[in-house]
Design brief:
globular; alpha/beta; four-stranded parallel β-sheet; 25 strands; single chain; about 525 residues; 17 helices
Length: about 525
């Protein structure tokens, strides 16, 4: 029987005591050193959510190399970009992804080592994959062989953690992912980041956290690895499922979980009878970020989860910038919070001048006092700001008189129709107040008319509903000026990445191709 005092990592029916995971990570770190992987070397991780993901990430960091998580949905050309851009020395990949990794290496004209991770049969069944994914290809040494060859874990290496946090890639929703190369952090910076993250995320030794999103994304990855170092019990979801999320919160008495607004909407789409079957009172920190949350969804989530709901706004380059609690949000609906820990937000016009409170402009940000500086790897500095020490990541928004930030979209997504700026977030928020809509994205499409662009909306119905585009426009007419009313298209899903961001470029290209 598992000692309840020993923290574990759980994925499906597989449970591993964290001391065992730490030992395996240390042995993998010793294998990396033996293979010539040195401090600062980049190791790509192409793994689904599983216990081995955390062991591999921890092992890479233990020897001072840089773990570079790769989106498992990417094709060979997309992976090839990162392999070449980062100069990856080793790729650790589940059997499922070995063919695409091999193709990517050939396209990038590189020859990284490859360590293969055979997928547990249970994971293969859960994901409904080909049973062959549970059997190694025999083309590369397996992770278990790497570990078995080094029975003694690598000991403590001074400065290895600082060396391991030198590179992270952006999500790539607006173009190719960019490598964010951070300056080497001091022990004080590391402790400040770890302490601030643990406190705001609600992580505690012996506590219980749930990983609902893919570990290849920055936020769930960083928080899960920190939880592993702290001895927080970790439950991994192999894939997102709304009812399964509630079941795991209930079963494991989860205190912390990180979601995106789309997940909140899917949870709210569950029938009331289903939701009532699960006790979610253990949650103290249900945190969302990564994409704007429509106020209607946020308000309904607060009605359900109460003060457990927290939100932050940030980016790969500068970390978390603003935070807001549920009570604060109810007093400032629609806001993503105020800057914390010495971070800063300024709103500038296109000429670089400050705009008054309530006026929409370009959002410029600075990370917390302890956040490291950075540069883009092999890429020009496209996010510079006229304000010393600040950057812009392409968001638009405004500050209210009390310093609360409100986002209105991205500068590249502003629709200009008849010379008037139209902000997609305003229309998306209006759409999400309608009861039959689970998800929505608004974008502009160039036209031959003198208006410049027309406004379009793709909407995903809630299960069991069949919203009519004409009825939707009629409902919006009571909420929006007529020049903001979109052409409505009902679709099965939106092209979102797993952090909740919509690939609006794809939506525009689809409609432009039809013209």
């Amino acid at each position: 029987m598992q000692d309840a005092s020993v923290p574990t990592i759980t994925c499906g029916a597989r449970v591993r005591p964290q001391p065992d995971a730490h030992a395996r990570a240390g042995r993998f770190a010793a294998a990396l050193i033996s293979a010539g992987i040195n401090r600062g070397d980049r190791v790509a991780v192409v793994l689904r959510n599983d216990i081995e993901f955390l062991e591999v990430a921890l092992g890479i960091a233990t020897c001072g190399a840089n773990p570079v998580p790769i989106n498992t949905r990417w094709k060979a050309a997309e992976i090839a970009h990162v392999l070449a851009d980062a100069g990856v020395r080793l790729v650790v990949a589940h059997t499922e992804f070995i063919p695409v990794v091999e193709a990517a290496a050939a396209q990038a004209d590189t020859a990284p080592l490859i360590a293969e991770v055979a997928m547990p049969e249970e994971l293969v069944r859960t994901l409904r994959l080909d049973p062959a994914c549970a059997r190694p290809t025999d083309r590369h040494p397996t992770l278990e062989e790497w570990i078995a060859a080094h029975p003694e874990p690598l000991g403590y290496v001074e400065g290895a953690i600082s060396d391991s946090m030198g590179l992270i890639y952006t999500s790539g929703t607006t173009g190719k992912p960019k490598g964010v190369a951070r300056e080497r952090m001091t022990p004080t910076q590391l402790l400040s980041i770890a302490g601030g993250t643990a406190q705001r995320m609600g992580l505690t030794p012996g506590g219980h956290m749930l990983v609902a999103g893919p570990l290849y994304h920055t936020s769930p990855n960083a928080v899960a690895v920190l939880a592993l170092r702290m001895g927080t019990n970790i439950t991994l979801m192999p894939r997102w499922d709304a009812e399964d999320f509630l079941r795991l919160v209930d079963r494991d008495r989860i205190q912390h979980a990180k979601v995106v607004p789309t997940m909140l909407s899917r949870l709210l789409s569950l029938p009331a009878e289903t939701r009532s079957r699960y006790d979610v009172s253990s949650l103290t920190h249900l945190i969302h970020s990564a994409a704007p949350c429509p106020p209607a969804i946020k308000r309904a989530a607060i009605d359900w989860f109460g003060a457990a709901l927290h939100e932050f706004y940030g980016c790969s380059e500068a970390g978390a910038i603003t935070w807001i609690t549920a009570p604060e949000w109810l007093e400032n609906p629609g806001s993503v919070g105020r800057p914390v820990d010495g971070s800063a937000v300024r709103i500038l016009d296109d000429q670089g001048a400050d705009v008054p409170p309530g006026s929409i402009g370009n959002v410029h940000i600075r990370g917390a006092d302890y956040w490291p500086t950075f540069h883009y790897l092999n890429h020009p500095a496209t996010r510079s700001s006229p304000l010393p020490g600040m950057i812009t990541v392409g968001d638009t928004g405004y500050l209210d008189p009390n310093g609360y930030l409100y986002l209105t979209g991205r500068s590249a997504e502003i629709i200009i129709s008849g010379g008037i700026n139209i902000y997609p977030a305003e229309i998306e928020n209006a759409l999400m107040t309608l009861p039959d809509i689970e998800d929505a994205a608004v974008f502009g499409v160039p036209t031959d008319s003198d208006l410049g662009e027309s406004v379009h909306a793709h909407i995903v119905p809630r299960p069991g509903t069949t919203p009519d585009p004409t009825d939707i426009r009629a409902a919006l007419a009571d909420l929006l000026a007529n020049y903001k009313l979109p052409e409505v298209h009902v679709v099965a899903e939106l092209p979102r990445d797993d952090s909740g961001k919509v690939y609006k470029r794809q939506l525009r290209e689809q409609h432009t191709a039809r013209v």
